[in-house]
Amino acid sequence: MQDANQEILKALGNRLREAREHRKLAQSHVAKKIGKSVATLSQIESGKSPGMGLLTVINIIRVLEVDPLPLLCNIGLLLEWQGKRSRMEKEPGAESAVSALNELYANVLQAK
Question: What are the extents of the domains in the chain?
């Protein structure tokens, strides 16, 4: 399972990096917008950030202004994150992230 999770993180990181590069945005710009260091963003983009949270991913997607479904096309990842929803709902300011997750989850299930 660890290898599968690592592959998911690596694929997601690659997609985020490709989207950032396509938009011609520097890592420093995106990192500043999401409130993370350039080193943290670099780890996320290389798939080496196992503690990467859903809020961070959603914030990156928002800064990049891209369609989240191609970035999160792995249904297993969506299902895993959907399972974290109840914990997230208790976090202050997480309402928009929970709403975005619910929307992503519904869109993926409709596309099946």
Answer: 2-111
